Amino acid sequence: MKTTDFTKIAVLCALSVTAPIVQAEPEAKDTKDAKPATEKQEIKPGTLAASIHDGVTYSILFKALKATGLDQTLAGSDNYTVFAPTDEAFEKLPEGTLDKLMLPENKEKLRSLILYHVIPGSLPSMSLKDGDVKTANGEKVEIDVDGNKVEVDDSHVVNSDILASNGVMHVIDKVLVPKSLDGFADLDAD
């Protein structure tokens, strides 16, 4: 036996003693019923998020809430007033606008748009007065009250005072567009 062969054997023996022990993986189990460890918390029943999720005319709004993480905000304990555009209101946006807003790279723009529909605190319709109100995105909406008719910017409230455990929701017939998004994806803030 040559010295080099003896050296190779010695090195292999040394490696086998110092090498980490690798155990076989346990057999894979059927995981179709398993929940992921990082699953978001469920939406609490009775919250604004639950009202939007459960409403048949708010599927687009809920999809946008989920895409921006605002579904969890509106499922929390803080009180909000939401001016909720219906699916029909979203469909009035210029063609392709909603698709562009829903792209991951436009998440902050979508978030700003949705937060423009949210006012911190609970404002039932009897509390709504003429004037500007600061929204959760930092910009102001104009509220115009004329008897039983309420307009927010140029959108009409078509159903009001949907109460939730963490605020109130008023249904509107048009998506509100903040000035900061004027011109983005053919949005018009006027």
From TrEMBL:
Keyword terms, alphabetized: Signal
The keyword Signal appears for this protein: yes
GO cellular component: extracellular matrix; extracellular space
Signal peptide extent: 1-24
Taxonomy, superkingdom: Bacteria
Recorded GO MF terms: cell adhesion molecule binding
Pfam family for this entry, one: Fasciclin
SMART domains to which the protein is assigned, alphabetical: FAS1
Residue span(s) of domain FAS1: 45-176
Name of the protein this chain belongs to: Fasciclin domain-containing protein
GO biological process: cell adhesion; extracellular matrix organization
Organism in which the protein naturally occurs: Luteolibacter pohnpeiensis
